[in-house]
Amino acid sequence: MESRSLFELNGKMPPLKNAVPIAAQHLVAMIVGCVTPAIIISSVAGLEEQMRIVLIQSSLVMAAISTLLQLFGITKFCGAKLPVIIGVSFAYLSSMKGICETFGLAYVFGAQLVGGIVAIIFGIISKKIVRFFPPLITGTVVFTIGLSLYPTAITYMAGGSGNPDFGSLTNWGIAIFTLIIVTILNHYGKGMLKLASILIGIICGYIVSLFFGLVDFSAIGRADYFAPLQIVPFGIKFEFSSILTMSILFIINSVQAIGDFSDTTMGGLNREPSSDEIRGGIIGFGVSNVLSSLLGGLPNATYSQNVGIVSTTKVVNRKVLSLCGIFLLVAGLMPKFSAFLTTIPQCVLGGATVSVFASIAMTGMKLVTTQEMDYRNTSIVGLSAALGMGVSLVKESLAQFPQWVTMVFGSSPVIIAAFVAIILNLILPKKLK
């Protein structure tokens, strides 16, 4: 009888011996994805050691708060009240890098604040505009997001930009070793071994890095044991092209959230999500990002890998999943833990995350192929990805345009891909005669 509550959305908290392993599954599935963008952006932004720790800490705490908000909601209008996990999303990474390099980190948080407000508005009117984002469109965008992240992974595998040993045999050897561990566990591991493949790969790569002197523990000794969040620790500034870029991504992630809510209810509850759950979920997504921008946490979104866990285990008890949020909260309030994460060599992160980025791209392709791949649809996907990736790889092709055009369309292929896919889907005939 006690174990039955695991499979009840509003069930009582089951014994910890049953609840903790499930929560741990969710934690190991998302923790790497939650902290890696913060580590990458802190490097791009050139943050000093203490502020790097603050960015990781804030992102972990806000992932916890965002998860708890979605699980339990604030009134019936904010929060899906479904068994979903929220964390920092790779979908924003390319655009955040472009904004950081061109303007600075404060402009990321300004754009995130406005993007969160856009998501709230999208949630309110979602019923009317969601038809403009069928799986063909969202799949094309997710596919392009995955492709856009490959250069980041390769740069990290080689040691990270600015590294005097960039491209060395040591960096590549450790990165490939890490990738091999992740790949073997993904294909041959079972249960927790497969679920924690990326985490285990990073641990193995980290241990090997110790023997090559690539790990510096000094930051851990200088970090505090406990520290509360700071209000606007990196500043908030606003710039039109940054806001436009991030707002489009927030709309895209709102649509993806609808898919994750649907997959969660279908896989775990054998039903479609209600309109109130979808609306509350997207509004909660927007609210959590507005709050996150004010407290120094990077943009978050629903985690599809955790949706997969719910569908596989059928454990939908919100109180069980809340333990994952509590673990994140405790970890985020401990700067020494955040400092430890900054010691992970970039080549290890690259070797572990390249498979994540490949998975993102293939997830997009799976969404695309849920619709018939006739000449019309292949044209939409092909042209959207080609123009998006092509322009972003040759940014100087926009040199004669105003700076805001270069920022919006040159910093990330996702924006062009989304625009082209939406327009082509509207104007191309459904059936060619």
Provide a descriptive summary of the structure in words:
- The chain has 433 residues and is mostly helical.
- The chain contains 19 helices and 2 strands.
- It is globular, with a radius of gyration of 21 Å.
Kindly list the characteristics that best describe this protein.
1% strand, two-stranded antiparallel sheet, 433 residues, globular, mainly alpha
The average pLDDT value, as a whole number, equals: 89
Main sheet: strands, sense, barrel:
2 strands, antiparallel
How many β strands by DSSP? 2
Strand order of the largest sheet: 1-2
Based on helices, strands and strand pairing, what is the structural class? Answer: mainly alpha
Distance between the termini: 61 Å
Helix content: 55-70%
Task: List low-confidence stretches.
Answer: none
> How much of the residues is beta strand, in percent?
under 5%
Number of helices: 19
Radius of gyration: 21 Å
Which descriptor suits the 3D outline? globular
Helix-strand pattern: HHEHHHHHHHHHHEHHHHHHH
